[in-house]
Amino acid sequence: MTQLKSFQVKSKLDALIVSYRETPELLFQIPITNGKNGAMPSNDYLQKAAIATRSQLHKHSKLIESIRLLMIEHDVILVEETASALEARREMRNWWKSLSLEEKTKLETFGNSIQFKSYLSKYRGGKQYKILSVLAHEYNQELLELGVLDKNYVPVKERASKQSSSRIKIAKEKREDWEYLESLPLDTVDDLITAAEYSGAYGQVKQLFSSMLSVSKSASNTSNYKIAHKHFVDYLTQSSVSPETPLSEILEEFILSRFRRDYILPLIDSNKMAPYSANTLMSCMRKTLKRAKKIKSLGFTSFHDIEGFDASRVTNMYKPYSLKEREQINGAIASDITSTKKMMEPYLKTGVGSYPLTSDYKIIPNKGTLDNARYLFENYLDCKPVFYEEPGSVYGKAFLRIVQSNQIGLHELYKNWGIIPIVDRALIAPFILRLAQITGMNSDSICALELDDFVSEHHITKKPCLTYWKERSGGEKAYYLDIFNAELQWLTLSQADSVRDVFDTVKKLTENIRKEASTSISKRLFLIRSSGKTVFGKVMAVDSLVSYFDRYASKHDLRNDDGESLQLNVARFRPTFVSELIDKDVSIREIQLMLGHKNLSTTMNYLDRLDFSRIARDKIKAALSKIQLSAIEPKPKKKVTRTHLRNENNIIFTTPLGGCANIFEPPEFIKNSSSYTKGQACSQYNKCLSCENVMLTVSHIPELFAMRRDYLLLAQNSKIMQTPYGMVLKENLSLLEDILTPSEDAFSKEELSVGEQRSLFVETNIIDSVGA
């Protein structure tokens, strides 16, 4: 392009100034840059517009200044603003002017505002760019009027401020609530607030926990008690305890055990609570319950205390003991119980030794032998053990001096003589472990057993069972042992024999010390006489043996499969029992019944948590080998010859229900049952109704109606529906309903009517049928 003369450039600039005065909007087309005197029109832009060089523009600086003044006059340039802010404002304004109405309604928004950064590279926030915020507000308002943005929108900051204010208010109210309850006296039951005085849920429970805040020495301890309160309230809610329930009805002897079993353990199992946190929670609960014992007339005088959680052992809770470990544990327990039973036999005098004392009861030189000590024991101590803490007579003191001079442990000496030195934890522990083996109960539940908790014949089912954690009020209501978390579960005959043996042995073992026990513990099965120095000789109930298990494992040198010291954990006896069931190919359905799970999915989830990798590997390997052998050497199918199994003479066998077409050839679902013995007659009469071999005639109708009647009565008036037998009962009721409904291919309405009338004179023994 030909370069213009200076006068031509001036003419161009004059023309531009005229156009800017006539149409001020054109001023917004001029970019803004920073000059010596602040914001200036862009020289580059004016050079192109006037077709001039930089030096030519410089000669006409007065005209450039005129353009700047016009830009100031029409608010294109604001003197107090920076050039960068003005330029960003100019671009933003021009962008907005270029948009059609439809384009404006489709703009991106967030937080009820246009997303300007998505469209403008120079858009900024902050103090130096307030003019952009003003313009942004103007454009947002325009969209508000168009209905694109929400007029009722509350900005996040305002919402956060309101929420923060609300949280502060709630926190203050909670703090004041705790402080108010903490300030109340809590010495007697009359000091407990009533529902009329306090509107919050579980008010008396919160008042109890509030009383612990005053004894807390730190903010963290105070927080721990508040957290413990929250968890305990969650437990009560989960247990369907009414929020208005008074404290006296909530607290009972086994509240801590139930809280641990039903609330804390599931949280640990699901990795929602760490063992360390659980121990802190248990500690706060334990101290709070001790505080509750001090409330006069509350009726809460004691509670069953239990151990916390060993973090290093929680991971092993679902790991069954290996075969090698089981053999060691079984051997140790059996050895100890056999040894104890032998020592329980009456002591037979040996007649060894001679009188070893002088007239002043000193030991004659060379007479201080163990045989002479035994002479004193048999002739002067009435064959009853004495101890250093309570030597008794002068003969007892002399006896102990002789034993001490021979450098032998007193307890060891008594055991060598076949005498039980003292009924302490070491003597009782094997019996507790034995019960854990055969029932799967936790150690704290076993320790809580009482003398009458073994029932050899239940009054309804005539089957043996265990009871524990019984209600103390009235003594009539009992919670039947859930060997595996069922509300009702019966002992098998073999289990019952073993349990009976433990009960009988321990009763005899503790017979003498029980006479010295306080009334509060005299009915407990497991009692001991303390061998500790501080409370030597005191008769106590065994509340827990968790701390003793390491000593027991060390005593018998129990080792795991890696040769390391075995950590004895009673909780592992349960998965060990289940692993034995799996080893015996017991079906998942039967395991479900034994575990007392209502849903099969619960059983599957439980099995998923167990460490059955060894069993799984062995079974998979065996199955694969079987498949491989079958593929390589397919066995020819042999025709099985049958004699009695075919029932060729069509003999109808009579069962408690009806006729059986072939009692030696039951259906497959019976054959696959673990209780079926091949070659023997089927005896599972509880499944007759669903069996294809059953033969029902009109003569059986009264019996069927009587059976349905008694099933319904049993379902309504007993806990049988909560047992695994409840499932069988439901199935049979469903089948009876089908059988006793009139149909063309079954019994007629008239036949059923007559049969129902005759059923009034029929008695059944459905319990035997159910439990068969």
From TrEMBL:
One of its GO terms (molecular function) is DNA binding. The keyword Transport does not apply. The keyword Nucleotide-binding does not apply. Keywords: DNA recombination. It comes from the Bacteria. GO terms for biological process: DNA integration; DNA recombination. PROSITE patterns: TYR_RECOMBINASE (PS51898). Residues 403-620 form the Tyr recombinase domain. This is Tyr recombinase domain-containing protein. It comes from Vibrio splendidus.
